[in-house]
Specification:
This is SET domain-containing protein. The chain folds into 2 domains: about 325 residues, set domain protein methyltransferase, domain 1 (Alpha-Beta Complex), CATH 3.90.1410; about 60 residues. Helices cover about 40% and strands about 15% of the residues. Helix 1 packs antiparallel against helix 8 and helix 8 packs antiparallel against helix 10. It is globular and about 75 Å long. The chain starts with 12 loop residues before the first helix and ends with a helix.
Length: about 425
């Protein structure tokens, strides 16, 4: 980030304004979906994904792992509870967004409702952090694997689901469970990614065995199964009678691996320095203002200039100290978060969407640009679907954790086996 330097003296009102400006800009955290990745492939800011590469052109279908075959309640199960919960919490739904069904009711996503006040690029959704589940983004902990991000976030999600309607997140849980009561789901709620590789039958997996690329994919699946089982066993060692079963844990792991976003949002570090760095921002601006007034009366008052200058820079100083103290801890890598409503949007890789976190408002926002609005051609152009980019993702990750590939429509007429065979053959034929 580039700043204009002051031309003359540090002890000037221009320097004072710069202190406040630097402090404020320091706290502008922008997550561009072109660099967002999903949590398990974190680089700088992340949805378990990776930066941009080969684009998915606008003509291709939005991708989602949720199809009508995954639940007896259909793809819209739980959306009514979720939206009622959202309205109770936020006062109203976003004016341009509702959950909707697409591709002949086989795909769930976000329906865009045009209004005169909205243009082609705008903030379309604001999400307060009080409605966000988070966990420190710890990718590996040899001493305690239960501290790793996916275990921690899965446990948080399960605790909310187990609490039922008493949970402040019950609407989000209802959406993920597709309207099925968590306590009554046996052995677990409907899967959030029902066509991901772990749900394929042995005969469906045999198609992948036809190539070395497919065999590597099967090995990746086995490694994932082993890893998740080890993590559940580690939880059992902490609590021999956990509140949730292994199947429920696997359900939650699938949900967080296909829905979590990652970045440095300030949730991981709860130190007093982290809190002071945010709280001190208004005082930073006030100090710079007082300094400017005093300097107009007494330009030689160097002690006051130094004092107000330090106050003006205090957010940066506190932030730096917090980062220095946290540098030896894996939790300093950031946070993994579940973002209700935002994570309901389906994926088109080159959609120009932006997610921002504002530490002053303590809220996330979603902005959309080009290629974020898709026409649902299966319904006489009656609907517009809002899509976002999860970032550039390899076919192997899409198949393993999401159960879809670019260009393939969702399951039609409940023919899940045929869809998986097409996925397998497409994966073998492609090289991405």
């Amino acid at each position: 980030m580039k700043f204009d330097s002051c031309h003359k003296r540090m002890a000037s009102s221009g320097a004072a304004a710069l202190c406040g400006g630097v402090s404020f800009l320091w706290y502008t955290v922008v997550i561009s979906m072109s660099s967002i990745q999903t949590a398990h492939a974190f680089t700088t800011i992340t949805r378990s994904f990776q930066g941009h590469g080969t684009g998915i052109h606008n003509k291709e279908r939005p991708m989602s792992s949720l199809s009508s075959s995954s639940s007896s309640s259909g793809v819209m199960g739980g959306t009514d509870v979720f939206e009622a919960w959202w309205k109770k919490s936020q006062g109203s739904l976003p004016p341009n967004l509702r959950h909707g069904s697409f591709e002949s009711d086989t795909l769930r996503g976000l329906e865009y409702i045009p209004t005169e006040s909205k243009d082609g690029k705008s903030d379309i959704l604001t999400l307060p952090s009080s409605l966000v589940l988070s966990s420190p983004f710890i990718t590996k902990d040899e001493n305690d694997i239960t501290r790793e991000w996916d275990v921690s976030l899965s446990a948080s999600l399960l605790n909310e689901c187990l609490a039922g309607e008493s949970s402040p997140m019950h609407g989000y849980c209802a959406l993920l469970c597709q309207g099925v009561a968590f306590s009554e789901a046996n052995p677990c709620p409907p899967w959030t990614a029902p066509n991901s590789l772990r749900h394929w039958t042995s005969s469906e997996l045999k198609v992948l065995e036809q190539s070395s690329r497919g065999k590597k994919m099967i090995q990746a699946l086995e490694n994932q199964k082993s890893d998740w089982s080890k993590k559940y066993k580690a939880l059992l060692q902490l609590d021999k009678k956990p509140a949730f079963t292994k199947e429920q844990f696997m359900w939650a792991m699938e949900a967080v691996h296909s829905r979590a976003f990652c970045g440095d949002f300030g949730f991981a570090s709860n130190s007093i320095l982290k809190k002071l760095s945010t709280v001190s921002i208004p005082f930073s601006f006030a100090a710079c203002g007082f300094e400017s007034l005093l300097l107009q009366k007494n330009e030689d008052n160097l002690p006051l200039t130094i004092i107000f200058g330090l106050i003006g820079l205090s957010p940066i100083i506190f932030k730096w100290l917090d980062g220095a103290l946290m540098s030896g801890d894996s939790s300093s890598k950031g946070d993994a978060v579940l973002l209700p409503f935002i994570d309901s949007a389906n994926h088109v890789e080159d959609a120009q969407s932006i997610i921002e976190f504002d530490p002053i408002k303590n809220a996330f926002s979603l902005s959309i640009g080009r290629k974020c609005l898709q026409t649902d051609n299966t319904e006489n152009n009656a609907k517009k679907q809002l899509v976002i980019s999860y970032g550039a993702k390899k076919d192997s990750e899409l198949l393993l954790n999401y159960g879809f590939l670019p260009g393939l429509s969702s399951v039609q007429d409940g023919k899940e086996n045929e869809y998986r065979q097409r996925l397998a053959q497409t994966f073998i034929d492609q090289k991405k």
